Amino acid sequence: AWLKHQTSPFKDKDGFEREVVRHVETTLARSLYNCDESAAYAACALAFRDRLILEWNRTQQRQTFADSKRVYYLSLEFLMGRALDNAMLNVGQKDLAKAGLAELGFRIEDVIQQEHDAALGNGGLGRLAACFLDSLASLNYPAWGYGLRYRYGIFKQEIIDGYQVEVPDYWLDFNPWEFPRHDVTVDIQFYGHVVKSTDESGKTVCRWEGGETVKAVAYDVPIPGYDTPTTNNLRLWSSKAASGEFDFQKFNSGDYESSVADQQRAETISAVLYPNDNLDRGKELRLKQQYFWVAASLYDIVRRFKKSKRPWKEFPDKVAIQLNDTHPTLAIVELQRILVDLEGLEWDEAWNIVVNTFGYTNHTVLPEALEKWSVPLIQHLLPRHLQIIYDVNLFFLQSVERQFPNNRDLLREVSIIEESQPKMVRMAHLAIVGSHKVNGVAELHSDLIKTTIFKDFVEIFGPDKFTNVTNGITPRRWLHQANPRLSELIASKTGGKGFLTDLTLLSKLELYVDDKEFRKEWAEIKYANKVRLAKHIKATTGVTVSPSALFDVQVKRIHEYKRQQMNIFGAIHRYLTLKAMTPEERQKQLPRVSIFGGKAAPGYWMAKQIIHLINNVGAVVNNDKDIGDLLKVVFLEDYNVSKAEMIIPASDISEHISTAGTEASGTSNMKFVLNGGLIIGTCDGANIEITREIGENNIFLFGNLAEDVEELRHAHLYGQHTIDADLARVFDEIERGTFGNPQDFAGMVSAVRDHGDYYLVSDDFHSYLETHALVDEAYRDQEQWLTKCITSVARMGFFSSDRCINEYAEGIWNIEPLVVDRDK
Ligand code: 26V
């Protein structure tokens, strides 16, 4: 009887319009005469949401019924961006919506733009998690994401007088994509103490008692797959005061303030995303976030497993948990606690289950980014977990001692506890010991972790525990959604939209690389994308740029290792070179626009200095009459996912120029090439595999290799290094005050010139400039350039996150897709 009442998805344009109108008039309680773009967005989103919900429920029922193994992706960050466009495309109804909205008097692009980005992440790591969710659903894998429902996402960046200013990102005013589940809650305990006792059989049992309790409330977000009914779930936890905690005594006795303060303290846990700053180190609230999220997620996962009434040893046959970096590592300890303390399993049996359940992905080799938590802090917040960590470490070190007797140095190196003052828990070591697989995110990076930071663990556990899964990106968002015209052109040559689910079909494009008409359309699309970006630049910065200039883009978080400073030094060098030319010589030069974007962590002083210099260079160069269109330097404010969708398709060349060995993978490099842009880059991260796939004629590689870095750094420290003359010339100009007060940039200059140049800017500067000269030369030959672009796109099939997810599914999770037909 229920079934006949189920609402069905809109079958046609009229059906869609009816739903939009209904939502405007009833859900939003607005008259049609008073329906602006934001109301149109809301109603359109609600209409599509209704459509998703049905498939979402069916998917969950089907997965439960099939009793298939699920993967749970634990990530503190999900950088989702906008949802409406994605939902329309994935369910295949964007054309219908476009026509329907047009009849109602709206342009679909304007409606889409109304949506606030879901910016629950910092950068690559969070966006990777979002691409993975898209692939998991599109490939019909039973999978859930677990994260935190931050009230504030990554801050909004404003540029005021050339400086970054951070503004809070309150994004929940209207969010139709989440469903509060007030009935799905978990009480999470903090602080307190451990009580030891002996049971009837003489076994020691531990109970964690006392302390305070905070409530976790689930908010669910539907994740629609592309061209499949599978709609997976992303569950985000929000913190609330536990019911008993809101103190009515205090409230009634007039101590209203302190009663509300308790409430607010609980809600603080999920209030803000940490903007991954060096200064976050050791913050108690961050550790609270981690445990809150991990404990709620595990409770949920275990509750689901227990319904099946299976024996515990089958847990890893039904559950795979992937740790996105070390942030969720406490999950390993929490599962061991649940199994031993609450379910009464023997330690070894429990530990076996734990290790077979977890996989750990490492995303950086930078030592300052490896997580450590102080023992006293964990002792205070999670006393029972600290005991378990010590026991895990004891058993681990005992086995190492048996394997490699009398090797004190080795024990100290691999210990989960660092014997410092105070003692620290090394989260990566705990994650390795508690997982059955550890992976890096690109070949070079996976090799580096095996030979440097984790090399002792390879000795101990053997090489098979360590593997590589090269990152990927979803072609749905990063081609079809971001670059619809290019997607359509590709579809017309590769036999339809199949390439969106099998990206290797792009290879068919190579057959058309000489097709005149095809090349012309391709070039037109790139130009139109550049025109759109030029308009955005004009509107947001006031700078006029010519769409026929070479667009040179570097957009990513600002960090010294990513070397935006080298890029801006290069732009200054170009400026000085142009200034030194006669007007006749200048005439012959290639016009260029240097485009930057990216946020600096609020406490990262050097990164902020880099932003300031970029803006100041722009202010000088962009207003220099001698230079005109030959060089423009712009910094785009508030780089985020939806800006990336506009910027990336408009790039001619993009910069991926990290010091070799420092960028684990990079994923925007893949996005740029997939959109018909070339790249200039170092031999680092996924650049290496991109080169292997597209051919070295199609990429501009430069600079020293990872294997040379140690020796070069050494040379700097022992003064066996002279600074490049071109770079010295740039420093002179900065110090003359051409770009504002030189004091403002003294840190940047001296880091390279006087303090060891840790990121080797001076070592790579010369080859960087030379390679940019090659870029200019190559761009002059527009036909050849176009050939490079088309050929590169044709060879990018490997970098789909679908390939990547299939590798995880097969090599780490041991899960299978649950295939369904559309109408079942
Ligand atoms: C974090 C921090 C925080 C403290 C200061 C220094 C520092 C340096 C790096 C990081 C990154 C943490 C992990 C991360 O986000 N890794 C990124 O993961 C992407 C997805 O795998 C990958 O493409 C990027 O190369 C990698 O940086």
TrEMBL record:
Gene Ontology molecular function:
glycogen phosphorylase activity; pyridoxal phosphate binding
Keyword set, alphabetical order: Allosteric enzyme, Carbohydrate metabolism, Glycosyltransferase, Pyridoxal phosphate, Transferase
- GO CC terms, sorted: cytoplasm
Class of the enzyme per the UniProt entry, highest EC level: transferase
Q: Where is the signal peptide?
A: none
**CDD domains, alphabetically?**
GT35_Glycogen_Phosphorylase
Substrates-to-products reaction catalysed = [(1->4)-alpha-D-glucosyl](n) + phosphate = [(1->4)-alpha-D-glucosyl](n-1) + alpha-D-glucose 1-phosphate
- Note the Gene3D superfamilies from the entry: Glycogen Phosphorylase B
Residue(s) carrying N6-(pyridoxal phosphate)lysine: K671
Needs which cofactor? pyridoxal 5'-phosphate
What name is this protein filed under? Alpha-1,4 glucan phosphorylase
* Originating species: Thermothielavioides terrestris (strain ATCC 38088 / NRRL 8126)
